[in-house]
């Protein structure tokens, strides 16, 4: 099945199975337009924009972590702020955030870093180990699992953080800039895993990897101090009449990554 067929299939699924519904969402502490939209059971969306702080704010808002000034975010029909305390542990396994910096336990080896969260949440050890081996293969991890994180490469540490979250079997997987600090050739293994994982989870990713976003994402949250909107396709983003979006896309088309501003 080619990418366009996958997009159409997921659009059909979105009409009947919206895992995450965004209703007039407006983060607290900023002057911004309210956002409205839905995320389906599988697929990938990107949070784009020139300011890292805005991308982070919207990712945390969609995760139900950052407070909202208005609107709400619903997961499986329930407001994220209304989940009972006893259900929060289950929620945070189904809706998982991996934020920068991707912290690991410095005094435990790589294998422990992967397995301990899954075991804490009650996964049988044999199942957790099987899932670990599968996810490590999917992300092409080539490091030494007996080493402490300090002795692993930047790529291997990012791979561990992503696999650790993957072992929780999230339905919504929110990831802040997994490319940050990596050399470009090292990104291929990350991107291959993200494409694969988007087939059974919904990935919501922030970052500046616009080539990857243009090829594989179905929707785009553009957020900046000047403009906030959801675009249903890459072509719709490119056709935006927003000056902020046009400048951002022009920098991309010119071969210069959009400037990072805080």
Automatic annotation (TrEMBL):
Which SUPFAM superfamilies does the protein's record reference? P-loop containing nucleoside triphosphate hydrolases (SSF52540)
Q: Where is the ABC transporter domain?
A: 14-250
InterPro entries associated with the record = ABC_transporter-like_ATP-bd, ABC_transporter_ATP-bind, P-loop_NTPase
Q: Which PROSITE patterns match?
A: ABC_TRANSPORTER_2
Which is one GO molecular function term here? Answer: ATP binding
Q: Which UniProt keywords apply?
A: ATP-binding, Nucleotide-binding, Transport
Source domain of life: Bacteria
Fetch the PANTHER family from UniProt: ALIPHATIC SULFONATES IMPORT ATP-BINDING PROTEIN SSUB, TAURINE IMPORT ATP-BINDING PROTEIN-RELATED
- Report the family membership: Belongs to the ABC transporter superfamily.
The protein's name in its UniProt record: ATP-binding cassette domain-containing protein
* UniProt organism field: Marinospirillum alkalitolerans
Q: What is the lineage of its organism?
A: Bacteria, Pseudomonadati, Pseudomonadota, Gammaproteobacteria, Oceanospirillales
